[in-house]
Amino acid sequence: MHSVEVGHVTGKGIEPVPQLEEKGKRLLDLMGLRFGAAHIEFIVRGNVPYLVEINPRLAGDCIPDLVELSTGIDMVEHVMDQAVGERKSVTKSSRLSAAIQFAIPKIKGTYVKVSGVEEAKKSNGVISVSVAALPMHADHVSSSYDRLGYVIATGDTPDEASGRAEQAIQKLRWGVGNIEAAHLIGRE
């Protein structure tokens, strides 16, 4: 069984795990990664970080969009500038908090339609709503490719941004055909 992230949040008020940034920098030095973007991922249990991955790339899952919404920093622009030899200063401005919530299939079957997209887009703080190409067959959830879509929302706090994204994702209603014996995914 694989873990699949169901959401992310960034913004003011989130307390980082002590020394996490320093540990990340040390890992980059050990790997010899001194240029460009780096995606370093940890799972934290009991305030202890466990390394998941280090990659010389920007994070996926729309995380650069969340960072730009919450800090004003366009990570893609800065990576491109660095790639062509331009040095520009990075100025962080504390703005809103931002969150993404993913729609995860809950029933085994073929997802053939979705409604509520316009309603979700009109929800408080919602910046964007995206839905996967349908039809889409789901019999398990083992990677980010198994997600049905996402909502990005902002708020004054991380909790508000997350709550808005979660509320908007709940407005999406899925039509499922070929339901496989009414089994719920992950409940076998």
UniProtKB/TrEMBL annotation:
Keywords: ATP-binding, Ligase, Nucleotide-binding. PROSITE patterns: ATP_GRASP. It comes from the Bacteria. InterPro entries: ATP-dep_AA_Ligase, ATP-grasp, LAL_C2. Pfam families: LAL_C2. It comes from Heyndrickxia faecalis. This is ATP-grasp domain-containing protein. Residues 19-84 form the ATP-grasp domain.
